[in-house]
Amino acid sequence: MQMINGFSKLSKQQKIDWLVSTYFQGDLSVMPLLKSYWNDDMQLQKLHDEFIENTITNFYLPMGVAPNFIINKKTYAVPMVIEESSVVAAAANAAKFWAPRGGFKATVLSTEKIGNVHFMFAGTHDKLSAFVQSLQPIFRSRTSEITRNMEKRGGGILKIDLVDKTNELANYYQLHATFDTKDSMGANFINSCLEEFANVLREEVLKYEAFTTAEKESLQIVMSILSNYVPNCLVRAEVSCKISDLKSKEIENPQEFAEKFVQAVRIAEIEPYRAVTHNKGIMNGVDAVVLATGNDFRAIEAGVHAFAAKEGKYTSLSHAEIVNDEFHFWMDLPLALGTVGGLTNLHPMVKFALELLGKPNANELMEIIAVAGLAQNFAAIKSLTTTGIQQGHMKMHLMNILNQFQATESERKEVETHFKDQTVSHRAVVDFIEDLRK
């Protein structure tokens, strides 16, 4: 394998030249492919080039819109960025279904974010606890420059606690800090505060007279980092209506539908094999809006799935019940989001998405994204318990199959006509196209 030094210092063209010669046997057809995804606006392309390191081209995902979402009596067209067929259609269908039934309700329950200074200490716990307590005003004063602007917006450091983890790992302690970062996701803010807390620990331990020399020397900072597990940065999304109001073209027997729906959710509550796929469907909706609004979907995914396992067993994020002839469907979701900073100020399509949503603050965006996840989950369970998931999904997937086989316009029309009332499968579509071409 050919190694290279100084790759990051090469120009974009030089990077591509090296990749083509090293991994594509000099096949120059790769170059126009990569360049076809460059933006003609050089200023815009430069912006994209600087988002990450070693950029060679852009990788496009489609942005769609799911209209008719009513959330807290306000109507939204929700932008979604995703490659999976049927996700946007399912969200739009769920929004349309619930619009005449009062729409979705969403409530931010809490907005606390978390960071930790992880450190080792071999001394006495009581003395360490007193030491950390004595540092509280110093933690605040040493981070005052970092927190000034955040505090002007009503946020800042909420609390700094000592957590003893020595029963799980010898000599292991944490500073467990909680923050309110208002409309920013706050990763840089939190990490900057944590690193300053660590500096305070390092410096002040040497001055603390109650510690022995050995205790002072035993304190070792391991790392300082925010946590993407945010069980107290929580939003609830929900829908409810009388069971009789569930009647629709697909739902002829509302009582039977409601009972079957609740059973489907309860299966996801007790069966991890189902819960993982159930929650993945929720995240289809969540991630699509998170991406469209320039937020970190990997952080959201990690935090959400940890939340789903918080009781020691992986379970459904959503819940459903029937009470007094009313159908209730809801979900609590941990979401650490931002509407200022990061890509929100840089990426033109992120700006567009946020403007489309009416320039929401972070709490409002939490509500919108949670609702998108609940809508996706409702649409999936509704399909699973009525027509089955494949009928709608495969018809949406039909376009991908036709593109894969570079179907002509006339072939497309014949295929779409044939499968209008037929079950769509990849094999059936391929066989039909091959028959057409014979």
What proportion of the residues form beta strands (DSSP E)?
A: 15-25%
The ordered string of helix (H) and strand (E) elements is HHHEEHEEHHEEHHEEHHHEEHHHHH
Indicate the overall shape: globular
Report the span from N to C terminus: 45 Å
Mean pLDDT over the full residue set: 94
What is the overall number of helices?
Answer: 16
Unreliable stretches (pLDDT < 50, length at least 5) are: none
Which structural class do you get from the secondary structure elements? alpha+beta
Order of strands across the biggest sheet?
3-8-10-9
Tell me the number of strands.
10
Q: Supply Rg.
A: 27 Å
The percent of residues in helical segments reads 40-55%
Instruction: Give the biggest sheet.
Output: 4 strands, antiparallel
Plain-language structure description:
- The protein is an alpha+beta fold and 438 residues long.
- Helices cover 48% and strands 19% of the residues.
- The chain has helices at residues 12-23, 30-36, 42-49, 87-98, 125-142, 144-152, 187-205, 213-218, 254-270, 272-292, 297-308, 348-356, 362-384, 389-404, 409-418, 426-437, and strands at 63-71, 74-81, 105-111, 113-120, 156-164, 172-180, 220-227, 233-242, 318-323, 326-334.
- A hairpin with a 2-residue loop joins strand 9 (318-323) and strand 10.
- Helix 4 packs across helix 13 (362-384).
